Amino acid sequence: RLMSTNTATHETQLKWGLSHESPLPRSLIKLSGKGIGKYLQGLVTIDVNRIIDKYKEDVERVSNTSESSISSFVPTPTTPHPSYIRRLHHCYFLDIRGRIITDALLWVIEEDTILLDLPIMKNEKGEVKEEEHPLLPHLKVYNIRPRSLKITPLLTASVSCVYGLPVTVLPPKPGSENGGVIAGDHDTRGEGMGLRVLTDVSIDFKSIINEKSLPSARGTYGLLRSVQGIGEGEEVKGRSVVESNGDFMN
Fold first, then answer.
1. Mean pLDDT value across residues 160-167
2. C-alpha closest to that of 148 among 115, 116, 112, 182
3. Which one of 146, 155, 219, 232 is at 20 to 30 Å from 225 when CA atoms are compared?
4. pLDDT score of 15
5. Cα–Cα distance, 198 to 185 (Å, whole number)
6. What does DSSP assign to residue 40?
7. 3-state secondary structure of 80
């Protein structure tokens, strides 16, 4: 890994060697049911209805994409792959004072299924329990249709990250035939944050990558966050979005 500075503009860029980190210490919560966009719309700092609509547009575009257009595609930093479906979005959950409860990475899995990729945090008792994330009570308070909208901790999946790949690399497709991948997408909160991958917890991430080309690099995720001011969990709890650099990441 290295940092390079453009002497003309004095801009510092992160350039990371190929590596991986798995699993990341994260908690996952699954939201499923009709009306999920309407439910989340007033709880987070992004337009959930818009990103669900964009997801549906991407799915339709991919289904109508011909093999010839895929084979002739030339990637550029600003042109997405014809088969790319954006699934990952950064946001915050706020309390009634507008203060951060927690940050989150929101995965659009299906039109009516969203996964919340959350930093591990202490509950009201000061304990760290994956099945009792402090965001859960907040989510359930606002769920007025518990029979049709399910909110459950997801203990059967884990989060991994691959570093050093260009953002033009197509994320792995979901499916058991693809090593148990649930979803994959690039983390765009900062430079070099990597290709994030959700897999079934029973799958050893090393079994679906080439470990010689992508050696393990523990601590990379925390270091990348630190040098770019990307706060998570207890670091941003109780703060405003602007105090947490959220205006740069959304």
1. 92
2. 112
3. 155
4. 58
5. 9
6. H
7. coil
